[in-house]
Amino acid sequence: MRLDKTLAHMGFGSRKEVKELIKKSKVTVNDQVIKNGKIDVNPYEDDIMVNHIPVEYRKYIYIMLNKPAGYLSATEDFKDQTVIDLLEPDLQLFEPFPVGRLDKDTEGLLLLTNDGQLAHHMLSPKKGVKKTYYARVSGRVTEEDREAFEKGVTLDDGYVTKPAKLEILTRGTMSEIELTITEGKFHQVKRMFQAVGKEVIYLRRERMGELYLDESLPLGSYRELNKKELNDCLCLIPGEIRGDL
Length: 245
Known about the structure:
By secondary structure, this protein is α+β, with helices and mostly antiparallel strands. The protein has helices at about 5-10, 15-25, 90, 115-125, 145-150, 190-195, 225-235; strands at about 25-30, 30-35, 50, 55, 60-65, 95-100, 105-115, 130-140, 165-170, 175-180, 200-210, 210, 220-225.
């Protein structure tokens, strides 16, 4: 990888700013001052330093975001703010994207990464990754609803959902529930309740696979995954496919 691209990727500034660092003899590779940012380096093996600070290269980032309402699960939009706008610029340099989507008005767990393999395996229908949501629902959620969800309900377009686990936390004119599904159709949770004559008023995702929302994260805040969380996610990728495991 080119030296200037490597340094820009690691957050040392734009290509222009990195060029100035190199011009001012602030960058060394294997103890040699470098004047040409176009040289190729191996960021995993070469000893790269900027202002005598070692550059620790990493290819992927993995971020847990407690998504607030009002943000799109997208990398860019000409009209609305996206979840990427919540990240610091040094993390945006890695070009992360959301793994799956949460509706604009839905809150909760969202994984952001630039690891395409992980995203593919977390979203693959073959993997059947569990997704758990907390919701407040207008109307009394019944045992009949629970049984219907367990068998699969027919959505407005004729699609029959896979079996889902519905746990009724409270019931009344406003009910509270937890719903675990293994697929991710458009507006699926809302449409499943519409299929049984009820309306989701509030929705928050709490779990995706073995990754659980950190309840200490305020809305709009994020942190990088810890080692256990990352390992739990990466275990979805077969070793013969992911050679760097």
